[in-house]
Specification:
The chain is mainly α and 297 residues long. It has 12 helices and no strands.
């Protein structure tokens, strides 16, 4: 007989469909999700959508205001700003996405190991993470790139490294709370190996917070990549990037403001949309905010 005091658990669709459906119903999640999908599609199809080559120069058309031929105007070398924004968005998103994936994977592995096997290994890993967290993000990224040299791949690695400690400490805190739960003790009593318990119980129960932190970290990675490119330490010419475009435009803000407005607004709305989507994912994935019973049976 089923206890009427405990409602029967519904049979939902897959997690992917459930999360997308809930985000789509949210007022603060639908528009950011649609904007990011359009932005990602535009970046991937930049070669098709861009009306001009991002590196094509025409000094006779320098500082041309937005119009029929050039929708967002041209820069100081006569290059089409709209085309450069499309290609610059592709470069910025590529660096930010791959760096965030690196941070999430490395930080999750370190957090799982540190939280599950406390002791000397835990102390070594956490002190290393504390040392990385002692530096401001942009300063540490600049220091790493100064050792490796400027470039897209090195910027990607630097941003990935500086984002790893956040994931490691977050996952460790989740694992410390999970390792003493009854279902973990039951798995140990059944003779399951520790790595099997981590894979089947530890990692799945930390995925919601990892997903939310990944979305929030992605927004910061976009900003850091833009800052590095602005300083000339990220994506290198002739490949356009949003931060580099802002650096090129800073001497012409009063004469040709469209040179800065286009990449600046792209960065602003991208970061804003990612943050709003991250907040919505937190509300969707956190059972405490949905009023659902917690725990894994």
């Amino acid at each position: 007989m089923v206890d009427p005091a405990w409602p029967a658990r519904p049979q939902p669709a897959s997690l992917r469909h459930s999360v997308v459906w809930r985000v789509g119903r949210s007022r603060t999640g639908l528009l950011p999700m649609l904007f990011l999908l359009v932005l990602l599609a535009a970046a991937l199809l930049a070669g098709v959508l861009a009306p001009y080559s991002p590196t094509r120069q025409s000094l006779f058309r320098a500082f041309e205001a937005p119009g029929r031929d050039h929708w967002v105007g041209t820069d100081d070398l006569g290059r089409d700003v709209f085309s450069r924004v499309l290609y610059g968005t592709r470069a910025s998103l590529r660096v930010a996405l791959l760096a965030t994936v690196f941070s999430a994977v490395a930080g999750t592995l370190l957090g799982l190991v540190s939280g599950w096997w406390t002791g000397t290994l835990d102390n070594v890993i956490m002190r290393l993470m504390d040392a990385l967290l002692a530096f401001p993000t942009i300063v540490l990224a600049l220091g790493i790139i100064a050792m490796l040299g400027p470039g897209m791949n090195n910027a990607m690695l630097a941003i990935g490294i500086v984002g790893t400690p956040v994931f490691a400490r977050l996952v460790r805190s989740q694992v410390l709370a999970l390792r003493e739960r009854p279902f973990v003790e039951a798995a140990r009593a059944l003779g399951r190996p520790e790595w099997g318990i981590i894979w089947h119980h530890g990692l799945p129960n930390t995925l919601p917070v990892i997903i939310v932190q990944t979305s929030l970290r992605l927004a910061e990675a976009v900003l850091v990549e833009s800052a590095l490119s602005f300083l000339g330490m990220g994506v290198q010419p002739p490949t356009p990037s949003l931060g580099m475009m802002l650096n090129d435009a800073r001497g012409f803000l009063t004469y040709a403001p469209w040179m800065a407005l286009a990449p600046g607004l792209t960065i602003f709305f991208t970061v804003l949309s990612i943050n709003l989507l991250g907040d919505t994912l937190r509300d969707v994935l956190d059972p405490r905010l949905r009023g659902e019973p917690q725990g894994t049976v």
